[in-house]
Each structure stands twice: as structure tokens, then as C-alpha cells.
Design a protein that fits this description.
A 5-stranded antiparallel β-sheet has the order 6-5-4-3-7. Strands 1-2 form a two-stranded antiparallel sheet. About 40% of the residues lie in helices and about 20% in strands. The protein has 8 helices and 7 strands. The chain has 3 domains: about 60 residues, Arc Repressor Mutant, subunit A; about 50 residues, no CATH class; about 90 residues, SH3 type barrels, CATH 2.30.30. By secondary structure, it is α+β, with helices and mostly antiparallel strands. A hairpin with a 3-residue loop joins strand 1 and strand 2.
Length: about 240
């Protein structure tokens, strides 16, 4: 097999991975990701269909896989596994305990799927990475995973929030919209606050109590990019919370 064929097989495998990890993806997105023409992506999709991969083409939208179809997990390369091991050491310093716990669990599953030679190397690397003790090692929030689930399922959250500016605690029902990471504030939740009837930013470490309600809301038409652009017009940085 010559170099061009090897490169194409690698791209076809990567396209299947993209189809399996996204609900729908366009030919333009695939072309940009793999730095090829849209015409090449069309040929690749046709080749996958001929190989028996059930690709669904939605006119005007893009491609997806037939619901319920799964292929065996793609083996991780040594570099991919090392990248995850390195990221794990950094995330163990995360200010949200639920994030560090779930990421460590995911890395363990990846390591279990590695070949023995690669597994030994990733274990060696994990023992040879240290994070400066100057970085605080105390978790300040525990709610990131719950918030992510509410955000993607469009569930209302009820929170008790301690405002830094008014120094008061308020009970609120909020509609989670997006997450924003700031080096100054750490994790911030952008949500529509039913108490204030507007979007607000909430520091996760100032959420004293949180409860997932059996109450759903309609997805907001506003995009995250539009929200951040609107914030920039009013402030020099979108990091300023308005909770």
C-alpha cells in the first residue's frame, strides 16, 4: 500500500470516528478538519457507504450514522494516550472535584484498552509528571458534571447562590446556557436567571446548594458567540459576572 492510500485509509477511519462522536457533521467541517477538498470528502463518504458503513445523508444539513450503529472502539495511539495522561495530571488540580473524578475514570478506561507495551509507557509517564505545589490543590466546587447534564438536557436548576458583590444568599431557578472558563474566576455558568429575568454569570464555587428539577425549558435561540459579543460591548472582558 503506497503512502497516499495509507493516508486515505487513516482519513476514512478518522471520518468514521467523527461521525460516531457527533450527531451530525457537514462536508465543509470535515474538509476543513482534514485539510482536503469538499469533493474529496464526497468521495470518502461514498467509499464508506460502499464498505457497509450506514452513513445517513441529510440534505442541507450533513452526515450522520444510523441510530444505534456502533463500531468497535478505535485503538489509541501512544501519543494520544500520553496526551490524556498529561491532561489528567493537570485536571487533578481542577477546582471542581466532579470534573477531576470523571476525567480520571475516563483515562482509566483508555489505559485498560491499550496494548501492554503502550500501557507500560503511559504508566511510566504518569509517574514522571508533577504539577507545581504552588498551584492550590483544594477543590472549591463539586457541581460541574451535574450542570453539564442539565445544560444538555434543558433541565431547570434550583440553586442557593452567594453573591460576591451584594454579599447575600438568594434562592434562584436558572436555565443553564453555557460554561465559561476564566483564569481569574475559574468555572463560570452562564444561565438565564428566572429571578432577574435575564442572563447572568454564576461562579461555581459560590453555588452553595444545587438541585436538578424535573422541569424543562425551551432552548434559547441566542448563541454563545452572540452572548459573549454582547458582553464585550458592555465590559472590557466577558469575565465579569453579573449574577
Amino acid at each position: 500500500m503506497d503512502g497516499n492510500n495509507i493516508k486515505r485509509v487513516s482519513r476514512l477511519t478518522a471520518i468514521v470516528t467523527q461521525l460516531q462522536t457527533k450527531r451530525i457533521i457537514t462536508a465543509t467541517q470535515l474538509a476543513d478538519k482534514f485539510n482536503v477538498s469538499i469533493r474529496t470528502i464526497y468521495r470518502d463518504i461514498k467509499a464508506l457507504e460502499q464498505a457497509g458503513i450506514p452513513v445517513v445523508t441529510e440534505e442541507g444539513k450533513g452526515y450522520s450514522l444510523v441510530e444505534g450503529y456502533r463500531i468497535p472502539p478505535v485503538m489509541f495511539t501512544e501519543n494520544e494516550a500520553n496526551a490524556l495522561v498529561t491532561a489528567e495530571q493537570l485536571l487533578l488540580k481542577s477546582k471542581d472535584s466532579s470534573l477531576s473524578k470523571e476525567f480520571s475514570s475516563a483515562v482509566s478506561k483508555v489505559q485498560a484498552a491499550l496494548q501492554n507495551a503502550t500501557k507500560e509507557k503511559t504508566e511510566l509517564l504518569a509517574n514522571r509528571i508533577a504539577v507545581s505545589p504552588i498551584i492550590p490543590d483544594t477543590n472549591q466546587s463539586h457541581h460541574l458534571m451535574l450542570i453539564q447534564n442539565a445544560l444538555t438536557s434543558f433541565n431547570v436548576l434550583e440553586i442557593v447562590y452567594h453573591s460576591k458583590y451584594s454579599n447575600e444568599e438568594t434562592l434562584r431557578q436558572i436555565e443553564p446556557f453555557a460554561l465559561y472558563y476564566s483564569l481569574r474566576e475559574d468555572w463560570l455558568l452562564i444561565a438565564y436567571c428566572r429571578l432577574r429575568n435575564d442572563f447572568r454569570m454564576f461562579r461555581l464555587d459560590r453555588i452553595l446548594q444545587i438541585k436538578l428539577l424535573e422541569l424543562s425549558f425551551e432552548p434559547h435561540k441566542l448563541t454563545l458567540a452572540e452572548y459573549l459579543e454582547k458582553k464585550k460591548k458592555n465590559f472590557t472582558t466577558p469575565d465579569i459576572p453579573l449574577s
